[in-house]
Amino acid sequence: MAGHSHWAQIKHKKAKIDAQRGKIFTKIIREITVAVREGGPNPDTNPRLRTAIENAKKVNMPSDTVERAIKKGTGELGGENYEEVLYEGYAPGGVALMIITQTDNRNRTTSEVRHVLSKHGGNLGSSGCVSFLFDRVGLLEVRKEGITEEEFYERAIEAGAEDVEVGELAYMLYTKPEELYVVKEALQSMGLQVERAEIAYKPNTLVQVQDGETARKILKLLDALEELEDVKEVVANFDIPKEVMEQAGL
Q: In 3-state terms, what secondary structure has residue 106?
Protein backbone atom coordinates (compact mmCIF):
# COMPACT_ATOMS: atom_id res chain seq x y z
CA MET A 1 0.00 0.00 0.00
CA ALA A 2 2.68 2.44 -1.05
CA GLY A 3 0.39 5.31 -1.95
CA HIS A 4 -1.56 5.12 1.28
CA SER A 5 1.64 4.83 3.29
CA HIS A 6 3.18 7.73 1.38
CA TRP A 7 0.24 9.99 2.19
CA ALA A 8 0.45 8.90 5.83
CA GLN A 9 4.07 9.99 5.89
CA ILE A 10 3.21 13.33 4.26
CA LYS A 11 0.66 13.88 7.01
CA HIS A 12 3.24 12.88 9.60
CA LYS A 13 5.57 15.62 8.34
CA LYS A 14 2.72 18.10 7.94
CA ALA A 15 1.62 17.58 11.55
CA LYS A 16 5.00 18.85 12.71
CA ILE A 17 4.61 21.98 10.56
CA ASP A 18 1.07 22.51 11.85
CA ALA A 19 2.36 22.24 15.40
CA GLN A 20 4.89 24.97 14.70
CA ARG A 21 2.12 27.19 13.35
CA GLY A 22 -0.08 26.58 16.35
CA LYS A 23 -2.72 25.19 14.00
CA ILE A 24 -2.61 21.80 15.68
CA PHE A 25 -3.93 23.39 18.91
CA THR A 26 -7.26 24.10 17.24
CA LYS A 27 -7.62 20.52 16.03
CA ILE A 28 -6.68 19.01 19.39
CA ILE A 29 -9.13 21.28 21.25
CA ARG A 30 -11.90 20.14 18.92
CA GLU A 31 -10.88 16.49 19.35
CA ILE A 32 -11.00 16.85 23.16
CA THR A 33 -14.43 18.48 22.98
CA VAL A 34 -15.84 15.79 20.69
CA ALA A 35 -14.25 13.00 22.75
CA VAL A 36 -15.86 14.35 25.94
CA ARG A 37 -19.26 14.62 24.28
CA GLU A 38 -19.06 11.03 23.07
CA GLY A 39 -17.44 9.31 26.04
CA GLY A 40 -17.51 11.60 29.07
CA PRO A 41 -14.91 13.82 30.79
CA ASN A 42 -12.94 11.14 32.64
CA PRO A 43 -9.82 10.09 30.67
CA ASP A 44 -9.52 6.93 32.79
CA THR A 45 -12.78 5.62 31.29
CA ASN A 46 -12.62 7.46 27.96
CA PRO A 47 -9.64 6.17 25.90
CA ARG A 48 -10.27 8.64 23.05
CA LEU A 49 -10.07 11.56 25.49
CA ARG A 50 -6.98 10.07 27.14
CA THR A 51 -5.24 9.94 23.77
CA ALA A 52 -6.30 13.49 22.90
CA ILE A 53 -4.86 14.75 26.20
CA GLU A 54 -1.61 12.86 25.51
CA ASN A 55 -1.43 14.55 22.09
CA ALA A 56 -2.03 17.92 23.75
CA LYS A 57 0.91 17.31 26.08
CA LYS A 58 3.17 16.36 23.15
CA VAL A 59 2.68 19.82 21.62
CA ASN A 60 2.98 21.56 25.02
CA MET A 61 -0.62 22.72 25.18
CA PRO A 62 -1.23 24.51 28.52
CA SER A 63 -3.23 22.45 31.02
CA ASP A 64 -5.80 25.21 31.49
CA THR A 65 -6.48 25.11 27.72
CA VAL A 66 -7.09 21.36 28.00
CA GLU A 67 -9.42 21.91 30.96
CA ARG A 68 -11.42 24.53 29.07
CA ALA A 69 -11.82 22.15 26.13
CA ILE A 70 -13.09 19.44 28.48
CA LYS A 71 -15.58 21.85 30.06
CA LYS A 72 -16.80 22.87 26.62
CA GLY A 73 -17.44 19.21 25.92
CA THR A 74 -19.46 18.77 29.10
CA GLY A 75 -21.39 22.00 28.52
CA GLU A 76 -19.96 23.74 31.60
CA LEU A 77 -18.54 26.45 29.35
CA GLY A 78 -20.46 28.04 26.51
CA GLY A 79 -19.14 28.57 23.02
CA GLU A 80 -18.91 26.38 19.95
CA ASN A 81 -20.64 23.00 20.00
CA TYR A 82 -18.56 20.67 17.83
CA GLU A 83 -19.70 17.43 16.24
CA GLU A 84 -17.92 14.95 14.02
CA VAL A 85 -19.25 14.84 10.44
CA LEU A 86 -18.08 12.48 7.69
CA TYR A 87 -18.09 13.47 4.01
CA GLU A 88 -17.55 11.07 1.11
CA GLY A 89 -16.34 11.98 -2.34
CA TYR A 90 -13.93 11.50 -5.20
CA ALA A 91 -10.52 12.84 -6.22
CA PRO A 92 -9.11 12.86 -9.79
CA GLY A 93 -8.53 9.41 -11.25
CA GLY A 94 -11.56 7.91 -9.50
CA VAL A 95 -9.86 7.90 -6.09
CA ALA A 96 -12.32 7.58 -3.20
CA LEU A 97 -12.16 10.01 -0.27
CA MET A 98 -13.33 9.84 3.33
CA ILE A 99 -13.19 13.35 4.82
CA ILE A 100 -13.54 13.47 8.60
CA THR A 101 -14.48 16.89 9.98
CA GLN A 102 -15.21 18.41 13.38
CA THR A 103 -17.51 21.37 13.04
CA ASP A 104 -19.91 23.72 14.81
CA ASN A 105 -21.61 24.64 11.52
CA ARG A 106 -22.43 21.86 9.04
CA ASN A 107 -23.57 24.25 6.32
CA ARG A 108 -20.27 26.15 6.37
CA THR A 109 -18.19 22.99 6.40
CA THR A 110 -20.17 21.36 3.59
CA SER A 111 -19.76 24.48 1.46
CA GLU A 112 -15.99 24.66 2.10
CA VAL A 113 -15.42 20.96 1.41
CA ARG A 114 -17.50 21.08 -1.79
CA HIS A 115 -15.63 24.20 -2.98
CA VAL A 116 -12.18 22.64 -2.48
CA LEU A 117 -13.21 19.41 -4.19
CA SER A 118 -14.66 21.27 -7.17
CA LYS A 119 -11.63 23.56 -7.46
CA HIS A 120 -9.21 20.63 -7.58
CA GLY A 121 -11.06 18.27 -9.91
CA GLY A 122 -12.94 16.21 -7.33
CA ASN A 123 -16.55 16.05 -6.28
CA LEU A 124 -18.66 15.52 -3.19
CA GLY A 125 -20.71 12.32 -3.14
CA SER A 126 -23.74 11.13 -1.20
CA SER A 127 -23.54 9.31 2.12
CA GLY A 128 -22.45 5.71 1.56
CA CYS A 129 -21.09 6.25 -1.96
CA VAL A 130 -17.52 5.16 -1.06
CA SER A 131 -17.61 4.04 2.58
CA PHE A 132 -17.81 0.37 1.49
CA LEU A 133 -14.29 0.78 0.08
CA PHE A 134 -12.88 1.39 3.58
CA ASP A 135 -12.69 -0.62 6.80
CA ARG A 136 -12.96 0.85 10.29
CA VAL A 137 -9.74 -0.01 12.14
CA GLY A 138 -7.58 0.95 15.06
CA LEU A 139 -4.50 2.81 13.81
CA LEU A 140 -1.25 3.27 15.72
CA GLU A 141 1.79 5.13 14.46
CA VAL A 142 5.07 4.07 16.09
CA ARG A 143 8.37 5.91 15.75
CA LYS A 144 10.99 3.89 13.86
CA GLU A 145 13.97 5.13 15.86
CA GLY A 146 15.79 2.49 17.87
CA ILE A 147 14.01 -0.60 16.55
CA THR A 148 14.56 -2.75 13.47
CA GLU A 149 11.71 -3.94 11.25
CA GLU A 150 12.16 -7.52 12.41
CA GLU A 151 12.03 -6.49 16.09
CA PHE A 152 8.98 -4.34 15.44
CA TYR A 153 7.08 -7.11 13.65
CA GLU A 154 7.73 -9.45 16.57
CA ARG A 155 6.50 -6.93 19.12
CA ALA A 156 3.52 -5.90 16.98
CA ILE A 157 2.35 -9.53 16.74
CA GLU A 158 2.89 -10.01 20.47
CA ALA A 159 0.86 -6.85 21.19
CA GLY A 160 -2.05 -8.08 19.04
CA ALA A 161 -1.65 -6.18 15.75
CA GLU A 162 -3.51 -7.44 12.66
CA ASP A 163 -1.44 -5.64 10.01
CA VAL A 164 1.67 -3.44 9.72
CA GLU A 165 2.92 -0.98 7.10
CA VAL A 166 6.48 0.33 7.01
CA GLY A 167 6.83 4.01 6.14
CA GLU A 168 9.76 6.34 5.78
CA LEU A 169 9.41 7.83 9.26
CA ALA A 170 7.15 5.48 11.18
CA TYR A 171 5.51 2.07 11.38
CA MET A 172 1.73 2.06 10.84
CA LEU A 173 0.08 -0.68 12.87
CA TYR A 174 -3.57 -1.77 12.52
CA THR A 175 -5.86 -3.47 15.02
CA LYS A 176 -9.54 -4.18 15.52
CA PRO A 177 -11.17 -0.90 16.68
CA GLU A 178 -12.13 -2.31 20.07
CA GLU A 179 -8.54 -3.48 20.69
CA LEU A 180 -6.81 -0.19 19.83
CA TYR A 181 -6.05 1.02 23.34
CA VAL A 182 -5.15 -2.43 24.67
CA VAL A 183 -2.58 -2.79 21.88
CA LYS A 184 -1.35 0.75 22.48
CA GLU A 185 -0.69 0.06 26.16
CA ALA A 186 1.04 -3.21 25.25
CA LEU A 187 3.37 -1.41 22.84
CA GLN A 188 4.14 1.30 25.40
CA SER A 189 4.90 -1.35 28.02
CA MET A 190 7.51 -2.68 25.57
CA GLY A 191 9.15 0.74 25.50
CA LEU A 192 7.91 1.76 22.06
CA GLN A 193 7.02 5.40 21.32
CA VAL A 194 3.41 5.56 20.08
CA GLU A 195 3.06 8.80 18.12
CA ARG A 196 -0.62 8.42 17.26
CA ALA A 197 -3.51 6.15 18.24
CA GLU A 198 -7.02 6.54 16.85
CA ILE A 199 -9.97 4.81 15.27
CA ALA A 200 -9.55 5.39 11.54
CA TYR A 201 -10.55 4.34 8.04
CA LYS A 202 -8.29 2.05 5.99
CA PRO A 203 -8.92 1.37 2.29
CA ASN A 204 -9.75 -2.25 1.47
CA THR A 205 -9.20 -1.73 -2.26
CA LEU A 206 -6.78 0.58 -4.06
CA VAL A 207 -6.86 2.66 -7.24
CA GLN A 208 -3.57 2.48 -9.15
CA VAL A 209 -2.37 5.94 -10.20
CA GLN A 210 -0.33 5.50 -13.38
CA ASP A 211 0.74 9.03 -14.34
CA GLY A 212 2.53 11.85 -12.56
CA GLU A 213 0.01 14.56 -13.41
CA THR A 214 -2.87 12.68 -11.79
CA ALA A 215 -0.68 11.96 -8.77
CA ARG A 216 0.10 15.67 -8.36
CA LYS A 217 -3.59 16.59 -8.67
CA ILE A 218 -4.60 14.04 -6.03
CA LEU A 219 -1.97 15.15 -3.52
CA LYS A 220 -2.74 18.83 -4.16
CA LEU A 221 -6.43 18.19 -3.46
CA LEU A 222 -5.68 16.24 -0.29
CA ASP A 223 -3.40 18.99 0.93
CA ALA A 224 -6.06 21.65 0.23
CA LEU A 225 -8.67 19.64 2.16
CA GLU A 226 -6.29 19.19 5.10
CA GLU A 227 -5.78 22.97 5.17
CA LEU A 228 -9.46 23.53 5.98
CA GLU A 229 -9.82 24.33 9.67
CA ASP A 230 -12.82 22.01 10.10
CA VAL A 231 -11.10 18.99 8.54
CA LYS A 232 -9.59 16.55 11.01
CA GLU A 233 -8.31 13.98 8.52
CA VAL A 234 -8.64 12.78 4.93
CA VAL A 235 -8.25 9.13 3.91
CA ALA A 236 -7.90 8.11 0.25
CA ASN A 237 -7.66 4.74 -1.50
CA PHE A 238 -4.83 5.39 -3.96
CA ASP A 239 -1.57 3.62 -4.67
CA ILE A 240 1.21 5.45 -6.52
CA PRO A 241 4.06 3.25 -7.83
CA LYS A 242 7.58 4.43 -7.04
CA GLU A 243 8.36 5.29 -10.67
CA VAL A 244 5.24 7.48 -10.92
CA MET A 245 6.18 9.21 -7.67
CA GLU A 246 9.58 10.01 -9.18
CA GLN A 247 7.99 11.13 -12.43
CA ALA A 248 5.76 13.52 -10.47
CA GLY A 249 8.72 14.83 -8.49
CA LEU A 250 7.19 13.64 -5.19
A: helix
